[in-house]
Request: fold
Amino acid sequence: MVVGLINANPVVYEKKERRVRSVQTVTDEYAEELIDQQEIFDHIRDIKDPEHPYSLEELKVVTEDSIELNNKQSHVRVIFTPTVEHCSMATVIGLCIRVKLLRSLPSRYKVDIKVAPGTHATEAAVNKQLNDKERVAAALENPNLLEMVEECLSPTFD
Reply:
């Protein structure tokens, strides 16, 4: 048994089967691939939880339905659900999602990361931290925090 965890025994769900995605393109002088909800989910589903050997998908921290996308406005919003109301890693999880999407999506996309309403004791504070450019930049300058984010983003071989 793991000692000192806020949620030592989280509920673990089965991963969804990966689907083959069809590619759509915008037909204008700057033809480019359109992004869909499934693609965004595929980018973040395998992020590892900072405290457990499970992915955010397996813990249902993120789901395909928790992603809002507006291609016309180049805007993505991911709403994640911590496993417990007092999750001390909520900010780290949100930071991992933000970093993964910033590395994966075209630079024109604005990314918002939010805690699902009513699922975290300090929801407003977490949301403020995750969507403030200066705070995010400062967090990523911290070598220990950056190492934790990189570990969560490193690929796993199931």
